[in-house]
Design brief:
Elements (H helix, E strand, L loop, with lengths): L6 E5 L6 E5 L9 E2 L6 E2 L8 H5 L5 H4 L6
Antiparallel strand pairs: 1-2, 3-4
Length: 69
């Protein structure tokens, strides 16, 4: 059984700021405020959350083969 990774690094596409974050296990995060420039990130079309769009590791539900709702 593969362990779910909760720590990820999210990167702002506007300013390039990187921040280590702990992803929620029970939901997907649709908005994220960049701690570098304040830009509000939203997922790309087809992605369930900001972590799937801008982080180096996808969200826990995707890692576990479950779709976010």
């Amino acid at each position: 059984m593969q362990m779910t990774i909760l720590e990820t690094t999210i990167t702002c596409p506007k300013c390039g700021h990187q921040e280590k974050e702990t992803m929620p296990t029970d939901s997907c995060q649709y908005f994220y405020d960049c701690k570098g420039c304040g830009t509000v990130l939203k997922p790309h079309q087809g992605d369930c959350c900001v972590y799937c769009s801008y982080a180096d590791i996808p969200c826990p539900p995707i890692q576990e083969g479950k779709c976010c709702s």
